[in-house]
Amino acid sequence: MRRGASGFSLVEVAIALGIVAFGLVAVLGLLPVGLNLAKDSSDEVIAVNIMAAISADLKSAEPSEVQSRRYQIPLDHANDGSAFFNLEGKWLGNTGTPVDAAFVARWKVRSRTASTPPVAHVVVAWPAKAATGTGSIEALLPLAQDVK
After folding, report:
1. Per-residue pLDDT averaged across 21-42, rounded?
2. HSE-CB of 117 using CA atoms within 13 angstroms
3. What is the pLDDT of residue 148?
4. What is the mean pLDDT of the chain?
5. Structure confidence by residue, pLDDT tens digits, 62-97
6. Amino acid 106: pLDDT
């Protein structure tokens, strides 16, 4: 070997490759976590949009109406019920569990008490077919009309 020759020894190259491999494994290990967070975030955005649509539907109901216009939530008596939505947040109906249901909105409409106005307690959960969902959001929505 010549004196003064420039270059890296085999040991230096092996150590550098080990450091790079360790870094790549760490970054690739974070990839599934990031993908799961993106999916969870997307599901939550859809659920919030569903909740906003239900809220708007309940707020737009006239005091004389017996059910909400868009989602047909009964408003003339205290009741419990549910509605199903697909992955895009499109309403699929209020009965049964449709095959492509991804989200379920459950409500409890309650009548006025001495201390509270008539309200609808709404929970949007996902996935729709699971006994215990991956996630959920809930809201207490005041109603314009008296519920019997």
Report:
1. 92
2. 8
3. 62
4. 89
5. 888 888 999 999 988 889 999 999 999 999 999 888
6. 94
Integer Cα distance of 72 and 92 in angstroms: 12
- The arrangement of strands across the sheet holding 119-126 comes to 91-93, 79-85, 103-110, 119-126, 135-142
The whole-number pLDDT of residue 123 equals: 95
Tell me how far apart the alpha carbons of residues 68 and 82 are, in angstroms, rounded to a whole number: 13
Query: Can you tell me the distance from the alpha carbon of 128 to that of 32, in angstroms, rounded to the nearest whole number?
Result: 24
What would the pLDDT profile of 16-27 be if each residue is shown by its tens digit? 999 999 999 999
Residue 147 has a pLDDT of 64
Rg (CA), the chain: 27
- Three-state SS letters, 41-108: HHHHHHHHHHHHHHHHHHHHCCCCCCECCCCCCECCCCEEEEEEECCCCCEEECCCCCCCCCEEEEEE
CB of 139 within 8 A of CB of 51? Answer: yes
| Residues present in the chain in total | 148
Distance separating alpha carbons of residues 96 and 54, to the nearest angstrom: 19
